[in-house]
Design a protein that fits this description.
With 367 residues, the chain is mainly α. The protein has two domains: 39-179; 192-362, no CATH class. It has twelve helices and no strands. Mean pLDDT is 86; it is low at 189-198.
């Protein structure tokens, strides 16, 4: 199989992080508004074809047993790829042995020309050792050529199956949708309807823009988790099928998850989904919880303020020097560190919204 040499450009990485959540959110809302929401659709069918079509997942998505036909061809690709790895190792070893035998042969010929004692015996031994080394190297070269040929045939056959299904998918999706005549009711998250979930305390009118900003930011960066599926999928395929492991996939993903952690902190605090040990708090009344939150808010704002100040210091230093990663990918670090003060600011705004509401609860203004 051919090797993959793709390395994601920096501009593509940052633009994907910015545009993908917007496109994904638009596709989700558009799909939820369809009357036949829940039935198989062409977009997902092609998505399965592109990402896992070699396993027939697009056929299984359409509930077709014909997806089983792809599995033997995929196993053939894996088998031939393993043969290529073994053949490459054998070729490397045989090349080293042949080069060593040739060096000994050349040295023995030089010794014989110089008339050194025992040179004839060393030359005969070197010639006897060089012959099988040459044969082993030639056999290893032929073995690698055969393995590449088998892998090419398996890859071409699998590719032809995928290409054929790429043309058949629209008709297959239409047939599947006709069989599923009962539409599935849309599953709309409470946050998408404007109705607060049971765990979310509705903000006071003055803080509704803050609540909207925190909610939108958290929901958009949540779509980054989908990018991790595509990225690690590419890494697994590149590493185990094309023998082309990467470094940029791991670095791009742990940076992405770090930014997601910072930007979604306020969203988790808004929905009260942070991990906590409720020994006393859960047994208090609504007003008792509000009093407890007001008292402990000092520690919250102390932490969030320190995060804001130190985060901005880290981000400004990274921007001023144009800091980049120390790996060969060399991605910019300042956008990553900039999410620290942004996340801290969102956390403080959400904390202020909650503090004002708790004060209003204690004062009896709201329930």
């Amino acid at each position: 199989m051919p090797s993959l040499t793709f390395v994601m450009p920096h501009w593509l990485y940052w633009s994907t992080l910015g545009l993908f959540p917007l496109v994904a959110a638009w596709l989700v809302y558009r799909e939820q508004e369809r009357r036949d929401f829940g039935r198989p659709n062409l977009f997902l069918a092609y998505l399965f074809l592109l990402t896992a079509g070699f396993l027939g997942m697009h056929r299984f998505y359409l509930k077709s047993a014909w997806g089983m036909i792809f599995i033997p061809f995929f196993l053939a690709v894996l088998w031939t790829s393993a043969d290529i790895r073994v053949a490459r190792e054998n070729l490397s070893l045989s090349r080293s042995e042949a080069e060593h035998a040739e060096r000994l042969l050349t040295r023995a010929q030089s010794d014989l020309a110089a008339g050194k004692t025992g040179a004839a015996q060393r030359l005969a031994k070197a010639e006897a050792d060089a012959a099988p080394a040459r044969d082993h190297f030639a056999a290893s070269t032929d073995g690698l050529r055969r393995a590449n040929g088998y892998a090419r045939v398996a890859g071409i056959l699998l590719g032809l199956l995928l290409l054929g299904d790429a043309f058949l998918l629209p008709r297959l999706v239409r047939r599947r949708r006709q069989r599923e005549t009962t539409p599935t009711p849309p599953l709309v998250h409470p946050l998408d309807t404007g109705v607060p979930a049971s765990a979310v305390k509705p903000p006071l009118p003055f803080f509704r823009p803050v609540d909207w900003l925190v909610r939108v930011t958290g929901e958009l960066v949540a779509y980054w988790a989908v990018l991790a599926v595509f990225a690690y999928y590419y890494e697994v395929v590149a590493r185990y099928i094309f023998n082309s492991p990467t470094n940029w996939v791991h670095e791009s993903m742990f940076l992405m998850f770090g930014m997601q952690y910072m930007l979604a902190g306020a969203y988790a605090y808004r929905d009260e989904t942070h991990v906590r040990v409720d020994i006393v708090y859960s047994h208090l009344s609504v007003r008792g919880r509000a009093v407890c939150d007001i008292i402990t808010s000092f520690f919250f704002f102390l932490f969030a303020g320190a995060l804001l100040v130190t985060g901005w210091r880290f981000a400004s230093d990274a921007i001023s020097i144009g800091e980049r990663s120390f790996t060969e990918w060399g991605i910019q670090y300042w956008p990553v560190k900039l999410t620290m003060p942004i996340g801290a600011a969102l956390l403080i705004l959400q904390g202020l919204s909650r503090l004002v509401r708790d004060i209003a609860i204690v004062a009896g203004k709201v329930e």
